[in-house]
User: Fold these one by one.
Assistant:
Number 1:
Amino acid sequence: MKKITIAIDGFSSTGKSTLAKQLANHLGYVYVDSGAMYRAVTLFAMQNGYIGTDFFDKQTLINSLHYIKLHFQFNGDLGFAEMYLNDVNVEKEIRSIEVSSFVSKVAEVSEVRLKLVEQQQEMGKKRGIVMDGRDIGTVVFPNAELKVFMTASPETRAQRRFDELQAKGDTVTYDEVFKNVQERDYIDTHRADSPLIKAADAIEIDNSELSKAAQFDKVLELVQKAS
Ligand code: C5P
């Protein structure tokens, strides 16, 4: 079986990363969570006071982009790579509801996208990669052999994210999470640069009623056909 490039796009909390990690482990591929990169840039902007509840100093963030160094490092205990911002492990911080509430605004900035897309394409050069995000099949890897577009109802997605955050001890409410999911969907699908859309050749999977195991089997079959 030849090594291929797998692009998984879709709305927030559709289980993209769970599926992508499962596939990468099974196939011996590299997994890249592109959302983690947008989240890390957002954390940088928050730490430096460039973004907050009612302000966003885009220009200063753009001018500071060269100070941002991102890399992934594999954690054998967890079985996946964690995100590092300027050599600091930020895997936990980038999943907070605060970062989630600002990330789509940061992801609208073309200069940010340009920097991250370049790095993502570099990581994909060796093939044998599964990357998940919003523009992987449309912009990052338009020639990917397999493109999957995942959807689920907003309620299902908010409940999943809420359960995940609660399990981590976050004191967030379901309503906050539901609002965040809806806001991000809106910004992600309406932005001018690389909006979230299904690539013409992507295969759509609605997993509202699909178990993780059934979904995995279905996608694995698609991988076998594409390899
Ligand atoms: O995948 P995740 O939910 O962690 O992504 C966080 C946010 O990062 C998304 O809501 C979106 O605004 C942005 N993003 C993006 N393009 C990607 C991946 C994520 O714009 N390829």
Number 2:
Amino acid sequence: KQSDLQIAIDGPAGAGKSTVAKLVAKGLDLFYVDTGAMYRAIAYKALSSGISINDEEKVSQIAQRTEVMLDHSDERLVWCDGQNVTQAIRNPEVSRAVATVAAYAKVRERLVELQRMEAARGGVVMDGRDIGTHVLPEADLKIFLTASADERARRRWIELQNSGRNVSFEEVFQDMQRRDRQDMEREVSPLKPARDAKILDTTGLKVEDIVTKILRLAQEG
Ligand code: CDP
Ligand code: CDP
């Protein structure tokens, strides 16, 4: 990669982080690292191994043992112990379980280590909840993306409809509210803007306009 620029993008669910982060990474020739996919992979593994996700010790053991790999091709496949879980980690069951798993200190410790290893390979755009506050505190640019709760749930609902999953808007809205609350209220690295983050409210904004804005901020340095 050409530069060692680090851009952190945090925010609640459905704010547009991954869509925007991918395009910013492409525009600046940086790696894109989806840290949410890593937490989802651990939640998926815990669910499919039949343990209770409320069992912190067992879930932490799973996090230690599981190999999570994000590929950097355009397909952005997610691998978990050699299994392609790219689709599976977007299941509603995983979405409902992931914030519980992500609240465990040992799970976070292990994944933050992986995330910093990714960043050590070269310039990155990394998205998540604690990138600006904890994972990359020295990032060159920190963005906190948000949008109204209604719009964020609508975006995710449309996405689920398009992938053939028949869920009601109300269900998506409630699940998302609950997950955001869990992410904001946990003790370890809760979701919040870093002190030096730029807060962008994207309600009613198009993806390309947000990307343009972030590219401009990155160039201003
Ligand atoms: O795409 P969406 O915003 O729905 O979620 P995600 O980015 O895939 O993240 C899924 C979950 O992983 C979040 O709700 C958090 O519980 C957890 N997460 C986290 O705790 N820290 C991160 N850096 C990224 C995700
Ligand atoms: O990663 P995060 O959960 O923050 O959001 P995302 O997965 O990037 O975006 C959720 C959905 O909203 C995607 O289908 C995007 O295409 C869509 N989106 C949108 O319609 N308008 C925006 N300004 C941003 C995202």
